[in-house]
Amino acid sequence: MAIRVLLVDDQPLLRTGFRMILEAEEDLAVVGEAGDGLQALDQVRALQPDVVLMDIRMPRMDGVEATRQITGPERNGPAKVLVLTTFDLDEYVVEALRAGASGFLLKDAPANELVQAIRVVAAGEAMLAPSITRRLLDKYAGHLPSGEESLPNTLGTLTEREVEVLKLVSRGLSNAEIAADLFVSETTVKTHVGHVLTKLGLRDRVQAAVYAYESGLVRPGAQ
User: Fold this and answer.
1) In what order do the strands lie in the sheet with 103-106?
2) pLDDT tens, residue by residue, 114-134
């Protein structure tokens, strides 16, 4: 079945461009459009999309609040949110990830990257492009722990291997890449990621990546 996509952006021309790109793919179907966050909430309830391609800065309700309501505990449907951003709006991306977005993508990304990002998010993975993640974290390095503070007690619930997996997740690696790095199967990696999320009370690997940096486990610039 085709992946159902809702386009949310206050610029009609951009929505038209995205629609043309996505409808050229056999496995993607644009089921609706919205020009602001409030319309997006109505459309999510009515259309039940799999992925919401979400702009950040919009009138009436911005993408951060719309994302929070779409992915929050009162959510009504399976929709995952892929945030669209430009580098001059980076501060909003961090809030969108905290609000529950499954990843982010630059508005000027090539068409193939946009298509692949939607497929990745629809499959339940996180879209954490390492280059963009690094730039975001470098920008906010002064607001993140220095690494000299004590690590939170919750990290003590993880095994040594689970900590390794968490660090690799924070770098934006996929399950396949983590499996290759640790010389284990993808199934084993999925199990470890599941344990990490459960033990730390996190919703998905995007939240896990944010947690790794905010806790001081990983520092901007570290490999």
Assistant:
1) 28-34, 3-8, 51-54, 80-85, 103-106
2) 998 899 888 877 766 555 565
List, in order, residues 6 or more apart from 223 with CB less than 8 Å away.
Answer: 171
Identify whether 144 is part of a domain.
no
Quote the pLDDT of residue 60. Answer: 86
- How many whole angstroms separate alpha carbon 208 and alpha carbon 61? 27
β pairing state of 3-8 and 80-85: unpaired
Higher pLDDT, 151 or 47: 47
CA dihedral 205, 65, 218, 144 (to 10 degrees): -170
Sign of the four-CA dihedral 219, 130, 53, 108:
positive
* 135 burial level (CB within 10 Å; 0-12, 13-18, 19+): middle
Structural domain including 70 reads 1-136
The verdict on 59 and 163 lying in the same domain is: no
219 falls within a domain:
no
pTM: 0.72
Q: Judge whether residue 88 has pLDDT over 70.
A: no
Beta bridge partners of 7: 33, 53
38 band by pLDDT with thresholds 50, 70 and 90: very high
Domain end (from 75, 102, 136): 136
